[in-house]
Amino acid sequence: MGKTTGFMEFPRRLPRRRPVSVRLRDWREVYEPFGEEATKEQGARCMDCGIPFCHDGCPLGNLIPEWNDLVYRDDWPDAMERLHATNNFPEFTGRLCPAPCETACVLSINQPAVTIKNVEAAIADQAWVDGAVRPRPPRRLSGKSVAVIGSGPAGLACAQQLTRAGHLVTVYERADRIGGLLRYGIPEFRLEKRHLDRRLAQMRAEGTRFRAGVAVGTDLDAAELRRRSDAVVVATGATVPRELPVPGRELAGIHQAMEYLPAANRACAGDSVGGAGRNTGRNTGRDTGRDTGRDTSGGEVGRPVVSAEGLRVIIVGGGDTGADCLGTALRQGAASVIQLDINPLPAPDRAPGQPWPVYPRSFRVSSAHQEARELAGLAGADWDDWLGPEPGPDGDVRVFSAFTLGFAAGPGGRVRALRLAGTELTRTERAGAERAGAERAGTGLAGGVPRQRRPRPGSEREVPADLVLLALGFTGPDPDSGVMEQFGLRLDEHGNFDRDDGFCGGQDGVFVAGDAGRGASLLVWALAEGRAAAAAVDRYLMGSSALPAPVTPADHPLTA
Ligand SMILES: Cc1cc2nc3c(=O)[nH]c(=O)nc-3n(C[C@H](O)[C@H](O)[C@H](O)COP(=O)(O)OP(=O)(O)OC[C@H]3O[C@@H](n4cnc5c(N)ncnc54)[C@H](O)[C@@H]3O)c2cc1C
Ligand code: SF4
Question: What is the pLDDT of residue 384?
Answer without folding.
Answer: 56
